[in-house]
């Protein structure tokens, strides 16, 4: 344990991968030399990955999963590293989202990715390309990730999903009428699922709205909690229950003040018909 470097998983995506790799190795009581021997690489290579100095290749991550018996957890996390168009912290969040037992979403301004139609997602990213915020390649990367995240929800048992949309998500047009019509239809289908709740937070809530920015709260299979929020430049994944519990309480307050699902569905149906 001499000269053992402290790792900060929040520092970067590579650091988060390295932290998980070391944790898994420590749980098995293996040294870097022992893991390296099992994987057929050098201990220097293992050290570089664990400390975030060398990003893992998909082949390295897949091999590590086989040696450590972790399914495809490391491989999925390494794939997230390739999403260069994403905010710092988001790829790590996605790995937890894929395993969550319950997902609570609150979104402002746009339909959240887990509920977007492909056409809506393409239109949203095309505007980012127009503004030169991202490249066309990065736009394609973001759209592909939306599809990947939605695919992870098709598991058994399916996660419970509670979604509250600020009214602005519905009123902000995205693309042509057909794009919005399909998106509204997707929301109505979502509301019919047995594992979902969909609500709208109307503008008239005013100051009673507890959040001004999007927020996500995950309940993991072991009932632990984590929250995810974004600033303009990076995302933050919070695991400390002392910080997450107040956010969860505020989310419940938001649900209590928002429209019921029945009223929310009626609003979406009226918007789809073009009536106020």
TrEMBL record:
Pfam families: DUF5753 (PF19054), HTH_31 (PF13560)
InterPro entries: Cro/C1-type_HTH, DUF5753, Lambda_DNA-bd_dom_sf
PROSITE patterns for the chain: HTH_CROC1
Domain HTH cro/C1-type: 21-74
The organism's taxonomic lineage, starting at the top: Bacteria, Bacillati, Actinomycetota, Actinomycetes, Kitasatosporales
Descriptive protein name: Helix-turn-helix transcriptional regulator
Domain of life where this protein originates: Bacteria
């Amino acid at each position: 344990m001499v000269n053992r470097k402290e790792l900060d998983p929040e520092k970067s995506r590579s650091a988060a991968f390295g932290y998980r790799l070391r944790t898994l190795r420590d749980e098995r009581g293996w040294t870097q030399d022992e893991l390296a021997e099992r994987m057929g690489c050098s201990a220097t290579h293992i050290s570089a990955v664990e400390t975030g100095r060398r990003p893992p290749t998909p082949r390295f991550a897949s091999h590590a999963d086989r040696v450590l018996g972790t399914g495809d957890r490391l491989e999925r996390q390494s794939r997230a590293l390739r999403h260069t168009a994403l905010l710092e912290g988001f790829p790590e969040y996605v790995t937890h989202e894929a395993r969550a037992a319950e997902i609570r979403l609150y979104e402002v301004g746009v339909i959240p990715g887990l509920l977007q139609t492909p056409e809506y997602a393409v239109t949203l990213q095309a505007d980012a390309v127009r503004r030169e915020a991202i490249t066309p390649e990065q736009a394609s990367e973001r759209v592909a990730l939306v599809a990947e995240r939605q695919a992870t929800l098709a598991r058994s048992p399916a996660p419970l999903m509670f979604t509250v949309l600020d009214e602005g998500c519905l009123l902000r047009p995205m693309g042509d009428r057909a794009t919005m019509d399909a998106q509204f239809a997707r929301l109505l289908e979502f509301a019919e699922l047995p594992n979902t709740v969909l609500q709208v937070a109307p503008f008239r809530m005013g100051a009673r709205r507890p959040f001004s920015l999007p927020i996500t709260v995950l309940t993991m299979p072991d009932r632990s909690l984590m929250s995810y929020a974004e600033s303009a430049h990076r995302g933050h994944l919070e695991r400390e229950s002392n910080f997450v519990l107040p956010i969860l309480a505020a989310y419940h307050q938001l649900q209590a003040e928002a429209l019921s699902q029945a009223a929310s569905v009626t609003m979406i149906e009226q918007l789809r018909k073009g009536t106020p």
